[in-house]
Amino acid sequence: MQFTRDLFDEPAPAPAGRAAGERRPADDPRPPLALADALAPASFVHPRATRELMLGHARVAYEFTRGKRRTIGFVVGAEGLSVRAPRWVALRDVDAAVQEKGDWILRKLDETRQRQARLESARIQWQDGVVFPFLGQQVIARLDPHHAFEGVGAVLDASDAPPTLRLALARNASASQIRDAAQAWLMRQARRIFIERLDHFAPRLGVHWNRLSLSNASTRWGSASADGGIRLHWRLVHFRMPVIDYVVAHELSHLRVMDHSPRFWETVESVMPDYDALRRQLKDEPVPRW
Question: Who has the most CB within 10 Å: 155, 200, 209, 280?
């Protein structure tokens, strides 16, 4: 779920009607860019940083810890760069190793920063008229207090453009009430869709599943146990059906091969020939933040 860009992007084109290099009009409402801001180096600061270096034109403050390990390790996450080293390695050697990995570190830090920005921009604001993806298509949620929808609390009107999810809630419903009603509907759809796709792929893979659990795990889209239990993250219903199919096929394939050996991926490929592209989509596409 990552994209890259150069640290120094090409300058943006001049607005229409004004040639590049032409003085900004006096009535232009945008504040001028301060020279200090324009020349400031990129900065990546871990909240628990204890050491700091300049990597190229970027300031990198990183979290440093020592532990029982044989080599220096680097991890780039949402908070920034973390470095772990054996107890016997001198600090100057740690800094030298960070400098040596500088290009990789900067690329990963930049990718992570962009990914976090994309995730934040995808955060759902729960209110009347909120839009969110369902099976890869945008759905708009509307409060409809005059209908109970046969006791289920919500119904999707696919005849609208975009499709409208009508929620049986009062006009003054709180954000948490709207979120909970939409989540309940999405989870019902997830269970229905997952069962349908499990039943579709299990015979083709020659396996049997016997239990489906909906997951809300923060780091895994699914899991499988040797007794035939399958866990799938209900938020997969935000994605297009082929991506859901990949995850379903992936977990069912574990009922034949419980590791990620070449034989496992051959099993997945037997029913999902384009699994690698779908796997990248699952990784690259931002999931709406709740």
Answer: 209
pLDDT at 19: 39
Residue 60 pLDDT greater than 60, yes or no:
yes
Antiparallel, parallel or unpaired: β 131-134 and 154-157: unpaired
Report pLDDT digits (tens) over 113-145. Answer: 887 777 666 678 899 999 999 999 999 999 988
Tokens encoding 273: 């020939």
Tell me: the pLDDT tens digits for 199-247? 999 999 999 999 999 998 777 899 999 999 999 999 999 999 999 999 9
pTM (two decimals): 0.62
- The set of long-range contacts for 13-21, using a CB threshold of 8 Å and a minimum separation of 24, is none
**CA triple 55-60-61, angle to 5 deg:** 145
* Cβ proximity of 1 and 108 under 8 Å: no
Res. 12: pLDDT tops 90: no
Per the structure block, which two tokens stand in for 108? 């990963």
Using alpha carbons, list the distances in angstroms from residue 273 to 53, 135, 200, 253: 45, 21, 16, 14
Hunting for tokens 């609390």 — which residue is that?
153
Instruction: Compute the average pLDDT of residues 49-59.
Output: 93
Residue 288 burial (10 A CB sphere; 0-12, 13-18, 19+) = middle
Pairing mode, strands 80-86 and 73-77: antiparallel
**CA atoms within 13 A of residue 9's CA, in its CB half-sphere:** 8
Q: Which of 115, 133, 81 is CA-nearest to residue 1?
A: 115
